[in-house]
Amino acid sequence: MSFHTFASVRESQAVPEEVVTRFAPSPTGYLHVGGGRTALFNWLWARRTGGRFILRIEDTDQKRNTPTAAQQVMTDLRWLGIDWDEGPDVGGPNGPYCQSERRDLYDRHIRQLLDEGKAYYCFETSEDLDAMRQEAETRKTGFVFRRPEQFPSEQDAQKARAEGRPVTVRFAIPQDGPIVVNDLVRGQISFNPAELADFIILKSDGFPTYNFACVVDDRLMEVTHVLRGQEHLMNTPGQQALWQAMFPDAPLPKYAHMSVTVSDSGGKLSKRERPKALRTAIQALPDLDTAILAQVGGISEEEVQTFLAGESVPDMPAIDAIAKHIGVHLPEINIVDFCKSGYLPETLVNFLALLGWNPGDQREVMRAEELIESFDLARLTKSNSLFDRQKLIAFNTEYLRMLPGEKVLGHLKAYLTEVQSPLLKADDETLLRIIRLCEGARTLEDIDNKSRFLFVEDDKIEFDEKAVKKVLLKAGALDVLQVVRDRLARMDEYTEQALEEMLRGLAEEKQVGLGKVAQPLRVALCGTTISLSIFDSVNLLGKERTLARIDAALERFRNQVQSE
RNA sequence: GGCCCCAUCGUCUAGGCAGGUCUAGGACACCGGGUUUUCAACCCGGCGACAGGGGUUCGAAUCCCCUUGGGGCUACCA
């Protein structure tokens, strides 16, 4: 693996004939939708142009990184179907692809900047800086770090280090005229350098900052196009100035700042929404038992308390577990959340692509190949877009309908594993059959909900209180059920067709709608009012188990009817 | 507060850069009806937008300015 030196980089005349894009997440947790969209757009552009797509891990913040997060991000990207040509796991010519492993590279560039007088040492502590900001605020002026008349010397830096004071390096933003960013989405944007702070490029822990490392890496990794969210727009003049200070002969990468995806609750979609929604849901609970919540979440009761007070946030598994326990649906934010809610990756890719981009005609449902074919930077949208979950569901319904059964089967199995459904016990053939019977389902969760009763032990059926009350305990319901039981027992031919004839015949005899017959039966078999068509339900369960469940329900609820 | 971005139905958007063909098109949602064994799905119909004000022009959703509104950034986070 050969590293570019500062000098060699300068000499090389980079002519980017090939498009190179990158996705550069910081490994702080799960990949969230916003990140997924950014990754997708960069990937689409690389694939569209036949260029390269790089995955780079921006792990320069030691406090925030978690060891498994990079792996998790890669898993989430793969689930979406996004692959990369260069990255930490697959390597590549311009690696390594984790910034924490590139420190000598950054050091070299910092050294050069320092030597050329384009950057300078700083010894303020965080507290000093905070105080300065405070003061600026009371004066109601914007805070811009004031550059010293004379840059501290190498000796000053050594002395400061010896005294145990923090030493950072700041980039001196050139003040010789406005910095003009030529954005592919927004056109020319001009910034006054006097209003841009000399930002820190080397932290006191020896790690570079994002704003610096990203510029060095984009250059060394030959990145030609930077597609990212609008939240990075204000970083761009600084990064651009840095680039020109370090690589004056290399053309700048092309920047495209995409619109932000906002949440229906206001600002941009944030990871905090899930815990926030859970907190609200818990607080609305009629009877609050923090001990139980702590137990299901696998956390201490104290953690629950501080969480409810808004002082802390438990980790995701705890949040998921508690939400599941109290039965609230949390808004999906991370890519895995969508997976766990039964969405298909195809749906998400399609939907995300349409957030801030469109093909220019009236197509909406588009597979990845089609997206690649049609993708074009010129059609990126300027205004923010709201993440519309209803439309997402509509898209998922569409994909569930149009994807071949085999494909759905693969996704369904992954989903069932994720949520540990009893349906996992079914073989592929049965699953495929169930998928066919669930035409019109909106999510994989729907499929699971409608058919998991088939694989729950007969005596482990959970009866939904409302369903029981509304259906089973209604006058005459159990009597009908008894008749159904008797006729079922006498059937020698137990086929879907015969079942339908029998049940319809019975309804006709009794002069009632089929619902009066089907619903009590359904609740007896499934515990809920939601299942496959009643004929399919009875048929798939099999005669023996059907009879057993009816008998159990009869026995259990007869008493209740009487006692009420 | 400062800097920056944005502005078409409730939502995502087409149209805008090259002004007339826009009584503004599509999709999702919603409303009404149909189908119906649950949940869905499905079918038919309907409601619904150029933020406001000034210009420029024969003519503005489209170009310019202002106002208003929304968003982003303002860290030794990325």
If you had to describe this structure to a student in words, what would you say it looks like?
It is built from 25 helices and eleven strands. It is mostly helical and 564 residues long. A three-stranded antiparallel beta sheet has the order 3-4-7. Helix 10 crosses helix 11 (301-308), helix 14 (345-353) crosses helix 16 (389-402) and helix 21 (477-490) packs antiparallel against helix 25. The longest helix is centred in the last third of the chain and has 21 residues, at 543-563. The chain starts with 5 loop residues before the first helix and ends with a helix. The model is unreliable at 1-15 (pLDDT under 50). The protein binds one RNA strand of 78 nucleotides through helix 5, strand 6, helix 7, strand 11 and helix 16.
End-to-end CA span: 80 Å
**Which class do the helix and strand fractions yield?**
mainly alpha
Q: What does the overall shape look like?
A: elongated
The total strand number stands at 11
Kindly provide the radius of gyration, computed on alpha-carbon positions and rounded to a whole number of angstroms. 31 Å
What do the pLDDT scores average to? 92
Largest sheet: spatial strand order = 3-4-7
The helix tally amounts to 25
Residues in helix, %: 40-55%
Strand content: 5-15%
Low-confidence stretches: 1-15
Describe the main β-sheet briefly.
3 strands, antiparallel
Outline the secondary-structure elements.
Layout: H1 6-11, E1 20-23, H2 33-49, E2 52-55, H3 69-80, H4 103-115, E3 119-122, H5 126-138, H6 154-162, E4 168-171, E5 179-183, E6 187-191, E7 200-202, H7 210-220, E8 225-229, H8 236-246, E9 254-258, E10 261-262, H9 273-283, H10 290-297, H11 301-308, H12 316-326, H13 335-340, H14 345-353, H15 368-374, E11 385-386, H16 389-402, H17 405-419, H18 428-437, H19 444-451, H20 465-472, H21 477-490, H22 496-509, H23 514-526, H24 534-541, H25 543-563
Parallel strand pairs: 1-2, 8-9, 10-11
Antiparallel strand pairs: 3-4, 4-7, 5-6
This protein binds one RNA strand of 78 nucleotides through helix 5, strand 6, helix 7, strand 11 and helix 16.
